[in-house]
Amino acid sequence: MSGIAQKKIEQIAQMWNERGNGLITHMALEIEEVSTQGVQVRMPFNPEFCVDREQTLLHGGILTALLDSVFGLANFVAIEGVSTMATLDLRVDYLRPARSRADVIVRAHCFRKTRHIAFDSGSIWFDGHENAEIARGVASFALTRGDSSLFDALEKGDPS
Amino acid sequence: MINLQAVNANVSRVPFFRFLNFEVQSVDSCHAETEMTFVERHIGNPVMDYYHGGIIASFMEATAAIAVHPDFADVPAKPINLTVDYLRPGVKGSLYARANVTRKGKRMASVSVTTWQTDREKTVAEGLYHFLLV
């Protein structure tokens, strides 16, 4: 774990886990590993995210949402001095039907960062089946540099 | 002629479509138009109350799948992959999508989707989705 303060990681993890509302809270994401090399996050099974009546088949969209979220986390961890970021584009391949009631694991990392743009990739599998990826995605992000991050704004409850 | 009420009845049976909170407004053999009503669980940026990019992509995927298979009986059309271009933030309020099936063969379909809010000219995101039909 190089080039990133443990304190920053803890702050990010804490804020991530305590975001009051919105999709990330609804997905009940749990951070498992965080480093500048990448992040690993667990999403517990949730029947609301399924498409079938038996509720065993996840909708692709939730996997896309999961990748987008975790890319954001990977960027905050890998890049110093990011205040906000916006997804520019996102590409996702659905490699197999996402049929399971197991937790979903996603691993993502920022593989290239410039002053204005970050490039990320990630993959998703069901817990215990790392060799059977269900989705893989890549995305690019437009970065806004600044001293105060989204996390700081949340901490202060100040939208500026 | 596709029965809009029947399509919405199918939509309401899909747990994730209920989660997205949208309704089909019009549908024919190669188009679908939908409206998603904003709810708190759609938020991606809690400071600005913007839609989560993944919710926008999911909503476009759902609309694309309906355009491909409006009369799906059980599960919606099977997605292969997608590309999304995010052009503007989606702000609090309704989001509209229009899916256009650009090609539907025996095995595959290609669908382009665009989304907007109050002004149809101001695209929030556009996407290209592929579906497996076999």
Give the structure's gist in a few sentences.
The complex is a heterodimer of chains A (160) and B (134). Chain A is an alpha+beta fold and 160 residues long.
Number of domains of chain A: 1
Q: In CATH, what is the homologous superfamily of chain A?
A: Hotdog Thioesterase
Beta-strand content of chain A: 35-45%
* Tally of alpha and pi helices of chain A: 4
> What characteristic shape of chain A results from the CA principal axes?
globular
- Structural class given helices, strands, pairing of chain B? alpha+beta
* Overall body shape of chain B: globular
Class derived from helix and strand content of chain A:
alpha+beta
Strand order of the largest sheet of chain B: 1-2-6-7-8-5
Quaternary structure annotation:
heterodimer
- Give the CATH topology of chain A: Thiol Ester Dehydrase, Chain A
Which radius of gyration of chain A do the C-alpha atoms yield?
16 Å
Which CATH-level-2 architecture of chain A?
Roll
Q: In whole angstroms, how far apart are the ends of chain A?
A: 32 Å
Topology readout:
The complex is a heterodimer of chains A (160) and B (134).
Chain A: H1 6-18, H2 23-26, E1 30-35, E2 38-43, H3 60-78, E3 82-94, E4 104-113, E5 117-126, E6 135-145, H4 150-156
Antiparallel strand pairs in A: 1-2, 2-4, 3-6, 4-5, 5-6
Chain B: H1 4-12, H2 15-20, E1 22-27, E2 31-36, E3 43-45, E4 50-51, H3 53-68, E5 78-86, E6 95-104, E7 108-116, E8 123-132
Antiparallel strand pairs in B: 1-2, 2-6, 3-4, 5-8, 6-7, 7-8
Q: Your description of this structure?
A:
The complex is a heterodimer of chains A (about 160) and B (about 130). Chain A has about 160 residues and is an alpha+beta fold. Chain A has one domain (about 5-155): Roll (Thiol Ester Dehydrase, Chain A), CATH 3.10.129.10. Chain A is built from four helices and six strands. Chain A has helices at about 5-20, 25, 60-80, 150-155, and strands at about 30-35, 40-45, 80-95, 105-115, 115-125, 135-145. Chain A has a six-stranded antiparallel sheet with strand order 1-2-4-5-6-3, covered by helices on one side. The mean pLDDT of chain A is about 90. By secondary structure, chain B is of the alpha+beta class. Chain B contains three helices and eight strands; from the N terminus they run H-H-E-E-E-E-H-E-E-E-E. In chain B, the strands form two sheets. A six-stranded antiparallel sheet of chain B has the order 1-2-6-7-8-5. In chain B, strands 3-4 form a two-stranded antiparallel ribbon. In chain B, a hairpin with a 6-residue loop joins strand 7 (about 110-115) and strand 8 (about 125-130). The interface between A and B is large, with 42 and 39 residues. Strand 3 of chain A pairs antiparallel with strand 5 of chain B.
